[in-house]
Amino acid sequence: MTTYTPQDKQEDVSASAFLHGAFYGAMALVPSTLVVGGLMKTSPRFLKATNFQSRTALAIMPPLFVFGLTSEKKLEHDMKQMAAEGTDAWVKQQEAEQHKKLKDSIHSLSAEQAEMMELYKDEVEHSGVRIVPGDTLSIPQRVANYWQANPFKILAAIGIPGVFYIFKGKAGQEHLQLQSKIMHTRVYGQFAVIGMLLSLMGFKQYMDTEGTFITEREAQEKVEAMAIKREQLLKRIEFNKKLDEDRRELIRKAHDDDVAHNLQAKV
Questions:
Q1: What share of the chain is helix, strand, coil (3-state, %, to 5)?
Q2: Burial group, residue 213, by CB count within 10 angstroms (0-12, 13-18, 19+)
Q3: Which residues are CB-contacts of 44 (< 8 A; sequence separation ≥ 6)?
């Protein structure tokens, strides 16, 4: 059953974001590789201070960062664009008025309308959300929602300072050469970032499965929005039906006038 949130498009959006990030990551790989290669040819000090592993890390880490950043931005943009699809100027102009009318008549619903509202409520409850009693979410629930929506931002916010902290700890070990400090930082940093990534994506998968937290007020707003859209659709259908009837009436009158004119011409 199609849900209120178009989750059936998430795989396509994720694939598009991955390809977008891979493209820009590949573009970033060219200058980073050229810079490292240039330093290897022109700077003996650079050759002495680094080894094969640290040079490889310096070449591939910028493209990986660009890949993560651009794919996250592309994913966020596409999800917002997907959520905005299906709206038009007429709906926006009528939404406030219809919302007020629906609230005024919510207590005087007919049996059919009450049944429709129950169907809408059931649709919202099964659209990948968890409804929380009350009008506000707790701080842990807000954090969980943000975590689900922005896992790479959290990874960057934790991982980058963590890698710098590891390098700072290695910098105090005077018996190690610079290339050894860089190599140790890369190894420990990769282990830490991969562990963080697995934890972040595991929790995101849990949230995707169980659903995002929303309040009862937000759920009711979704139900009302669905009812408003249905009402607007019915009115639009009625309006188009009336236009068709008026058009047929005009055609009939034009035909009758033409027949009458031809009869008068024959007489």
A1: 85, 5, 15
A2: buried
A3: none
